[in-house]
Write a structure and sequence with these properties.
This protein is of the alpha+beta class and 495 residues long. The protein folds into three domains: 174 residues; 115 residues, no CATH class; 179 residues. Helices cover 45% and strands 10% of the residues. A five-stranded antiparallel sheet has the order 1-5-7-6-2, with helices on both faces. Strands 8-9-10 form a three-stranded antiparallel sheet. A hairpin with a 5-residue loop joins strand 3 and strand 4. Helix 4 packs antiparallel against helix 5 and helix 11 runs antiparallel to helix 14. The relative contact order is 0.12.
């Protein structure tokens, strides 16, 4: 059960019209009320009647919801609160009565409509299909005071975590702030219009992570981004001249209507891609960060196979280290897992390049499985430092070519799959279900790629696995929020 609290706004009419419309992709099936504020009366009396064109006429419902706004003493800047709650596809269908109880519990948990408070905000719950509802509320109480709804995202996620157990639904786990920021609806639509396989945010995150994995310091990191064709903008320190405190990146092909690049800061791509977090990753066990740049080298096929065999041996040692450290030093085990994630990222780039594929997908899943809360980067250990050095060696050996390379890569993938199984058990013991699920899926993808028997050549058209099936990756759903678009004249939805 995933709740998503959408950005607040002032477009109540647009939101209610949308909730009763067929939806952007005809996904709204039989929209109807399942719950409303205390004292609202019978739901049938609130339900939208059919208009002259046969579509629901929600003007009366909008007027009732907006009445407290007209009597507000000190209304807030944004007056409309919107939350969508979606169950996993494999969950059983809940009745309207069950959804009514869920809606009431969430509104009580976020503090907008506490039980027994007749002057709470006015709100409704609209059900669209078997697996989701929408909550819409105005942020002025019926006594004229403002309802702030502090920490509504965390509180709604916590309540849904309890409701999952109460209703026997798929357990997603508590919010742990490990997921990277997902592309919004506008970014996804723009990528589709431009014929891009990935939104700019996702493409940049892949490019930045690959550059960070193969670099030994920030100077080399910046150089690798430039070599990859990524536009770079550095943020100089206001205290120490000559130093930088952050960076932003952009793609030359991703611009605004005025032709200006769309910039993304490292923290907007992933929590662990800020410059301070990257410096922690590059640091040696003694805490020093190297800034020297590694020169390009030419690697023979025999040396490439030797490097891959050494990487496989290091990965086997990493699995043993995690098992050994899990009980008495989980932070060191986390450091080993995060460094091993770099090895898989480097191997995926060596095999698939910028095009991506199943190994790139597995690398992203493994990266998710090894993340710490809030992008926390574990302090480097001798083993994690050696693993990151191995990642750079794998990156420097160039693209995979020839049967000996392929056999060595397949052996490395099987060792990485076993490491993913070990990581899944470790994260499950640490009560991190999101990461444990991602590790299990990474192991599945790696084994499929290693046992498929196909040649892992750069030009092989190997489709990536489907990542749209539900996984405990974030506490937010991806239902579009039409109210987040700029104001336009209100039109009735049309089919």
């Amino acid at each position: 059960m995933n709740p998503r609290v959408h950005p607040r706004h002032n477009r109540l009419s647009r939101l209610i019209w949308y909730l009763y419309s067929p939806g952007k992709c005809e996904e709204h099936e039989n929209p109807h009320l399942v719950a409303a504020w205390e004292g609202a009366g019978d739901l049938a009396s609130l339900e939208a009647d059919a208009g002259y064109d046969g579509r629901p006429d929600v003007r009366g419902l909008i007027d009732l919801l907006a009445q407290p706004l007209h009597a507000a003493r000190n209304p807030p800047k944004w007056t409309v609160w919107h939350c969508s709650i979606r169950n996993a596809p494999e969950d059983r269908s809940l009745s309207d009565e069950a959804w009514r109880h869920i809606a009431g519990e969430v509104m009580n948990a976020v503090g907008l409509a506490p039980y027994g408070d007749p002057n709470a905000v006015r709100w409704i719950a609209v059900r669209h299909a078997d697996n989701h509802i929408h909550l819409a509320a105005t942020l002025v109480r019926q006594d004229g005071r403002t309802a702030w709804g502090w920490q509504d995202k965390i509180k709604s996620r916590g309540m849904c975590y309890e409701l999952e157990q109460r209703y026997g639904l798929r357990r997603v786990g508590p919010m742990d702030r490990t997921s990277h920021r997902r592309p919004g609806a506008a970014e996804l639509n723009k990528a589709k219009r431009l014929g891009k396989a990935l939104p700019a945010r996702d493409e940049l995150r892949r490019q930045v992570r690959a550059a960070a994995v193969t670099a030994s310091g920030e100077n080399e990191f910046f150089a690798r981004l430039a070599d990859a064709g990524v536009m770079l903008r550095l943020r100089p320190s206001s205290i120490n001249p000559g130093e930088y405190t952050g960076y932003s990146v952009a793609l030359p092909s991703h611009t605004t209507a005025a032709g200006k690049p769309v910039w993304f800061g490292g923290g907007k791509l992933a929590r662990d891609l800020t410059l301070p977090k990257l410096r922690q990753q590059w640091a040696s066990p003694d805490g020093h960060t190297r800034t020297a740049s590694a020169a390009a080298v030419r690697v023979s096929p025999a040396a490439r196979v030797t490097a891959l065999d050494a990487a496989a041996e290091a990965i086997r040692g990493a699995a043993d280290a995690i098992n050994h450290l899990a009980g008495n030093n989980p932070q060191a085990a986390q450091a080993v897992a995060q460094a091993a994630s770099d090895t898989l990222t480097a191997a995926a780039r060596a095999v698939e390049g910028h095009r991506g594929g199943p190994l790139t997908t597995a690398a992203e899943l493994f990266d998710q499985a090894s993340r710490g809360p809030n992008g926390w980067v574990a302090k480097a250990t001798a083993r994690s430092h050696d693993l990151r050095a191995m990642s750079r060696l794998v990156a420097l050996m160039g693209r995979i070519s020839g049967d000996p390379d392929t056999y060595a890569v397949l052996a490395l993938l099987l060792d990485l799959a076993r490491l993913a199984d070990t990581l899944a058990a470790f994260q499950q013991a640490q009560q991190r279900p999101h990461q444990a699920e991602a590790a299990r899926r990474a192991a599945e993808v790696l084994r499929t790629a290693a046992t498929a028997g196909r040649r892992l050549a750069p030009d092989a058209a190997v489709p990536a696995p489907d990542l749209t099936r539900p996984a405990a990756t974030t506490a937010e759903t991806t239902h579009p929020d039409p109210s987040a678009t700029p104001d336009t004249p209100r039109r009735r939805p049309t089919r």
